[in-house]
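How it folds:
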Amino acid sequence: MKNPALHQMSRFALSLVLLFYSTILLTSGCIWIPILETNWSENYALDANGGKSETPAINDGKMNTVAFSSAKRPRHLIVQFSEPKKVRKIIIHNYNLFYFDLQYWDSDKMEWKTFQIVRQRRDAKGVDSKMIQPKFEFGRLSFMTDKIRINVTRTVDDDVVSKDRPSRDDIIVNRIRRYIMGRFVEYYRVLVQKPAGVREIEVYGVLPLVRVNP
């Protein structure tokens, strides 16, 4: 059974706490408004906001343009900000990426650091009849950088061909050894890379809480 005196004291203490905080808000001359949704920054990667890239279609703000890497290793797509920013979210609008890593430039250690590895499913229906995931969103990030790099290892447009004698620079994905009609056969499955494409990359930070004067 509850003690009536103790219960009354608890209610009185709670009332004092509420009165204390109400007094602070009224006498401070301003009110902090909690934001129910995250207050995102401008898109750091966008060309109009100072972002730069050697493949300008990646940050021109247009979804009908595609930025392509070279067809040879390494297949990189890089965007640079106007200054170092704290990155909290990245959105990639995909064209043909299948396997890729996301990396940021660590200016203290002077090296690229991988923060996300993507190995996509083949059952995701994308645009242009490509079996790809059309959009990737990576949240809960927290690092300072002025450059983001997409390091692509496979695209849905890559081919695989058979070779009896692969060259030193070939990317071998499988080695086949079998008997066909009583004759031993050995050959290699070799990856033929195609340009990696991205429609757009968006990079965001988080803005502080909004203070509103009453």
The chain has two domains: 4-33, 47-160+191-207.
